[in-house]
Every structure is written in C-alpha cells, then in structure tokens.
Amino acid sequence: MNTRNARIWSLENPHEELESQQDSSKWNVFCAISRGKGYGPFVFGEPTVTGFAYLDAAQLRLFPQLKESELNNFIWQQDGAPPHWNLSVRDWLNITVLDQWIFCKRPNDKDFVHGLYVHPI
C-alpha cells in the first residue's frame, strides 16, 4: 500500500490494510482560459504528465488555436508543477512568449515564505 495516498483514522483495527493499484487508469486533462474564451479540454494519453507531454500539448494543441492578436495580448501563467517547470518547456516559452509568462511559486519555496514576513498580506 502506498501510505502517501491513504490514511486510516479510526479507533478500530489500526492495522487494517487497503490494496491499491499503482498507475491505475486515470485521466489527465489540461485546459486554458482567457478573459473571453476557453481552450480545450486536452486529454493526455500517458498515465503521468511529463514535461515533454505538457510541451507537446502546448505546442501542438493549444498554441495553434490562439490567434496572432491573442498571442500579443496575454500572460501565460503556470503553477510551477514539475512538468510546467521542465527546462524544455521554459526554453520554448522564452522563445515563443518572451516576457509574457510567469509561474506561481510553491508555498515550500523559501522565497515565498520570506515574502510573507517581509510584505505581509
């Protein structure tokens, strides 16, 4: 059993075990939204979304749908998940939408915590 996925809180039978299947079938779906339009959903065929699969979705599925006027008037924001922060993804974004993409730092990032103390919300 993968104990990161299951916790049993009970006064009864503290040694109960649950079977779980690793890499069980699941859907990974990506979509993008803008002020006036939604894009997707884009379904990933892989059980785990890698940086290369994420880059593929952006290059081959999402960006071809964006009009030239939209490409010059948007900011691409990501949450910093490992596929989003893959070096090939960052390199492609730097070429494609230079100065128009940001990522959200994760709470475990020391700069994020430091910012909370220096500039409280």
UniProtKB/TrEMBL annotation:
Gene3D superfamilies: Ribonuclease H-like superfamily/Ribonuclease H
Superkingdom of this protein's organism: Eukaryota
Molecular function via GO: nucleic acid binding
PANTHER family documented for this protein: HTH PSQ-TYPE DOMAIN-CONTAINING PROTEIN, TRANSPOSABLE ELEMENT TC3 TRANSPOSASE-LIKE PROTEIN
Protein name: Transposable element Tc3 transposase
Organism the protein comes from: Trichonephila clavipes
